[in-house]
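Worked example 2:
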Amino acid sequence: MTTELLPVVLCGGSGTRLFPLSRESHPKQFLRLTGPQTMLQQTAMRLRGWEEGIRLAPTSTLVCHEEHRFLAASQWAEAEGGAVSIILEPAGRNTAPALTLAALHACRDGADPVMLVMPADHVIQDIPAFQDAVRAGFQGALQGAVVTFGVLPQYPETGFGYIQYRQEHAEDNVFAVEAFTEKPGSALAQHYVQQQNFLWNSGIFMLRTSTWLKALQLCNSEIFVSCQSAMRVARHDLDFIRPDKVAFTACPSDSIDYAVMEKLLAHPEWGIACSVVPLNAGWSDVGSWDALWKVTEQDNHGNAVIGDAVLHQGCSDTLFMSSNRLVAGVGLRDLVVVETADAVLVADKRCTQEVKTLVNRLSEGGHRITNQHRKVHRPWGWYDLIDSGERFQVKRIVVNPGASLSLQMHQHRAEHWVVVKGEAEVTHGERNFSLKENESTYIPPGHKHRLRNGGAQPLEIIEVQSGSYLGEDDIVRFDDAYGRAKPPVSPHG
C-alpha cells in the first residue's frame, strides 16, 4: 500500500510584528500581502500539481484558532484547496500542540501517513522547487526520520532559528542535522552566516504521524497526554472538529523546535534521525515589515509601494503601505510607513522586530486596537465601524449572498437599517418583509430581529445604533445558522 503525503497546515499565530495590519482577530495568514491571494490561500495552492513521485492524501488537515474558523474555511474554499479537515484550537498553544492534534486525528483509524507540516503564513515563490525538495526528503520521512527544510542565510537574521548540518555523507541533497539554535543574538547570527553549514530553519517539517507521536512522548509527554485527552472526546461542530477545551487549555505551550527537535539531537539512543533538505525556492516567513519589504517589488531606489502612495524628493529603501488613504512621503530613507483605517505605523526598518514589543505594551494597556480592526469579518460577511460617539454608532454591513445574521435581540439599543445595495429580507418580531435599495426600517430595543440576504449579490446596509449602552455584550441570540456559542458575542456575530 502506497503511503500518502498528508498536508498539515498550521494556521495559528497572531502575526503581531505586522501590526497594525495584522491583529488577533485577523492575523497575517488571512491577509493579502504579496499578491491577490491571502497567505493561507497561497499555502493551499502550493498543494497543486504533484504529478510525480508522491501521492497526496485526498483530505488535508488545517489547524486554526476557533475564532478564525469561518474565515479559514471560506478562504481555503476560495483557493480551491480541496477537501480539508479543520481542527479548532480552543486556545493558542504554539506549534507543537497544534501538530499533535493533527497527528492524533490522522492516526485515528490506524493510518500512519507522512505529514507535510506547513505554516499558513509563509511565502514560497518557486513552487516546483519546493515540491522537488519535498520529494527529496520523502523517503527519509517514510523510513522514520524527522525531515526539516533549511534556507541558505542571506544575512544575519536574529528572528529565525538556525540548523547546523553535516556536509559529509549527504544523500540526494539530504543532510544529517548537527544542531538547532533558536533565534540567536546578532553576533552569533553573524558567525552562522559566515559558515558553510548553517541554514535558516523554515519551520516546514515532514515526518510520519507515528514518528511525531513517539518523539513527543519521549521529549514532552505532558503535551501528548493533554492533546490525547482533548482529541479523545473531540466533537464535530458543523464541518469543524473541536477538541475538548478543558484538556487542551491545560496543555503546555511550546514550539516544535523547543518541545522536540532540540531534544532529539541530544538523545541519539532514541533512534529518531533528524535530516535537513536545503530549500532554494524563494522562501520568506514575512515575519516583519522588513521581511515584507524584501519580497515586494521595488523601484530603482529600493522603495516598495503597496496601495496608494506618492514619493517625492529622494525617498529610498522604504516600504509604503496604504489601506484606505493616500500616503505621501518626502525624503524618507529606510523606513516603514503603514496606514490602516484606525492606525498608522512609522518605524525605522532596522527596528521592525520591536513592533511585537510595541503591541504587547498596547495590549497590557487594554487597547482594543491590538485585537480588532475597524473592519470585522463574520461568517456571513463583514462590518465596518464608520463612526461612533456618545449614544451612537454607525456601521456599514455587507451580507454575503444566501447568508443571514442570527435571530437576536438587544436590551439597551435601537437599530436603524438603510439598504444601500441589494435586497434585504427582514424578520422583525412576527413580521417578515423585504427592503429594497433606499428603503429603511427601525428596530426598537427588546425586539427580536434578523437580517438575511436571499439574493445573488452582496447586500449592503448602513446601520445606526443608538441607546444608553452600545457594548458588544448587549445581545441575546435565539437562533444561529453557524452553530456559534451562546452569548455574549459581537452585536453582528
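Residues 289-364 form one domain. The chain has three domains: 5-284, 289-364, 375-479.
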